[in-house]
Structures are given as C-alpha cells and as structure tokens.
Amino acid sequence: MRERRNTPIGIADARGSLREACSPLGADDRFIEYFILPGFTDVHVHLREPGFLYKETIKTGTLAAAAGGFAHVLTMPNLDPVPDSPDHLKVQTDIIERDACIDVRPLGSLTCGEKGKEVSDIEALAPHVAAFSDDGVGVMDDGLMREAMERVKAAGSIVVAHCEDTRYPRESREAEYRQLIRDLELAEQTGCPYHMCHVSTRESIDLIRSAKKAGMDVTCETAPHYLTIADDEIEDEGRFKMNPPIKTKKDREVLLEAVCDGTIDMIATDHAPHSAEEKAKGFAGSAYGIVGLETAFPVLYTRLVREGIIPMQKLVDLLTEGPGRRFGIEEADDELTFSVWDLDEEYTVRPEEFRTMGQSTPFEGWEVRGRCMMTVYKGKVVYKR
Ligand SMILES: [Zn+2]
C-alpha cells in the first residue's frame, strides 16, 4: 500500500486532476476510508484479439483489467495470427497501440502457430515480447523444448510454461506435474529462466520449491480459483471449467502454504473469456476458461486477507512486486499509476456488471468486499466507478 487516506477526495495535491474526477465519490457524507494501491500486474490474460473478437477485444479486456485495478497485463499468444514472428506480432501490437487503456505486453509463442513442431522466430521476437509461451498447450517434444529453451536463454528472455503432458488425462494431476519434471530437467541443463503458469497441484509445488532451493531460475504463478475453491465445490456448469482443472482441498491447502512461504511468486488470473454459448454446455461440454480480471482482488482480499491467511501487504506484493520483478515491469512503481479501493463495501459478484465480454466465473454470486472505485494509469483515469 502506498498510502492510506481518510477522505474520499484526499488524494495528494500533486494528483490535482484527480480531485475533480474523485469528487462525486464524496457526494454523500458517509465516512469512507479509501485505500490507494499500486496498479496491479497480471502476467496471464487472454485478450483474444486478433482472431477471436466475439470472445473479447483488447478494448474490452483492458477496460476489464482497469476495472479490477490492473495497470499491466501480459497477453497469451493463442491468437490468430499467433505471434510467432515479428509480422504476426505487429498485427497485435498495432491494435494494442490503438485500443488499450493500460499497459499490455504480449508474449511471443514458443513454437510456430503453437503447434509444437518448430521453434518460433525467438531471436527476432525477443526484443518486443515479455516472454515466450505456448499457453493453452504443453510442448510435448523434448528435443523441441530443449531447443526452445536454449534459444530463449540466449535471447535473454523467459520460458513461460503451460505444463500439460497429453499422455495423461487432462484432469489428472500427472498431466501437470509430469511435464513440469521434464521441463525442470531441461531448464537445469540449459540454464533457461523458467516460469510455470497456473500451478494447481501439490506435486508441482514440491518440485518448484526444490528447484528454487537448488538455485534454479524458476518462478511460478497460481490463480485465485485454485486458492479459493476445491473440486468438491464444482458444479455441472461451464463456469467451473478451466485448464488445469481445480484440484482437491489438500492441493488448495498446499498452494496456500506456498503463497505464504514465497514458493508462489505471483497470482495471475488466466482471464480467458468465451462466448455465452461456448460456456453454456455444462461442465463436460463447455470451453476451457473463465474470466478473472474483475474479481481477482475482491476475492483474494475477502478470502485470504480478511480471513487472516495472508496480510494485505503480501497480497499487494503478489499482484505487483512479484510479477514486476520477474518480468521487468519497472513502471509498477510509477507514482501516477494506482487504483483506489473501498475495502468496506460488501457486494455480490454479478457477471452481468462486468466490462469483459466473458461472463463465466465460478465466483458468480459470491459475497465479497473491496470495490475498485478508480484506476489511474500514467496519470490518466482509465476506470471510474
Ligand atoms: Zn492461459
């Protein structure tokens, strides 16, 4: 927390332009305590553009991010075209330049078309992307993954891995951690910086913890749903369907311990919007992916901070310094980039109020605390309630 104020319009004079923007908030004389938090970073979002505009666009996705207090997002490359070359990447960066209201940093794909057959043009892409990933699919070919790691390391970047060994059922724990074992061996041999996406099993946590102890350059993220929901709470609805699937209570406990002891470096949402039709086919038939940008902080604040599992500062670190350190987001310290929160306001999560085009969330109907009142990016109000 950068600072704490006792009046809704008590933002420093240096932020004078905000005074006016904020003043309607103080129209009633309710004594409100607002918290100013640094702009959050989400290293794992799917903004769906170019290619899948019926699910989300860079405009709607970044508005949703701003409404959730995020100022920096890293976008996954399962797009059309897949950013596997500078030309393909440019299609995306042109739209970002035109439509994004916050900082958007694309990841390049590890393999051409995310097809797992040929390594992308790593060297040409590296100066323009935040990292490299084939998110959504695991890279099965060991030799190809080794080559990708060697080239990513030489280019000074990071491999961001969606761990999924397709020889195991997708819902199994082995699908995740078996590929992590392979990846960690390759990362050790090549010295490539390695970041694991959306950790969901306790076995993965043990492996990451050991790798860190051994001094490897390894980090990981988990998502709010893995920290707050267990598999016995899953209903037969598309809004509980994501990849990797939510695991057991025991896994959730181990993930929470790993958040507390620093094994988990950051929390990312894996915001993955789909159309209503794609998510209306029950648990079995719906597409993989849920939205997360607008619920991340309220859910984590309500379930983790208010319940005494982690202190507020820790949650803020997981959403700012943790990802900032790993992915070099120095602007996370920008004085003119922050969000304003009413932490006392209690409300029900209603997807129909979201800015994202996706409305599928396991948090629908949850009572949460923490309302984002405003987000400012580089001195500009990008979201105001
Ligand atoms: Zn993803």
What's this model, at a glance?
The chain has 385 residues and is of the alpha/beta class. The chain has helices at 16-22, 58-67, 86-99, 122-125, 142-154, 173-190, 202-213, 224-228, 249-261, 282-285, 296-305, 312-319, 321-327; strands at residues 3-5, 34-38, 40-45, 70-75, 103-106, 108-109, 132-133, 159-161, 194-196, 218-222, 266-267, 338-348, 367-377, 380-384. α6 runs parallel beside α7 (202-213).
Describe the structure.
The chain is an alpha/beta fold and 385 residues long. The chain has one domain (39-329, 358-367): Metal-dependent hydrolases (TIM Barrel, Alpha-Beta Barrel), CATH 3.20.20.140. The protein is 32% helix and 18% strand. It has 13 helices and 14 strands. The strands form three sheets. It has a six-stranded parallel β-sheet. A five-stranded antiparallel β-sheet has the order 1-2-12-13-14. α5 (142-154) packs across α6. The protein is globular and about 60 Å long. Residues 44, 46, 76, 135-136, 270, 272 line the site of zinc ion. The site of zinc ion (ZN) has 7 residues, from loops.
Listed once per kind, the bound small molecules are: zinc ion
- Main sheet summary: 6 strands, parallel
CATH superfamily: Metal-dependent hydrolases
Spatial strand sequence of the major β-sheet: 6-7-8-9-10-11
User: For the terminal residues, how far apart are their CA atoms?
Assistant: 20 Å
Number of helices: 13
Structural class: alpha/beta
Our estimate of the beta-strand percent is 15-25%
- Name the helix and strand elements from N-terminus to C-terminus, one letter apiece: EHEEHEHEEHEHEHEHEHHEHHHHEEE
User: Mean of residue pLDDT?
Assistant: 92
Helicity range of the residues? 25-40%
| CATH class term | Alpha Beta
Query: What name does CATH use for the topology?
Result: TIM Barrel
List segments where confidence is low: pLDDT < 50 over at least 5 consecutive residues.
Answer: 1-27
Q: Mind telling me the C-alpha Rg?
A: 20 Å
Number of β-strand runs? 14
- Number of self-contained structural domains: 1
Named CATH architecture: Alpha-Beta Barrel
Q: State the shape.
A: globular
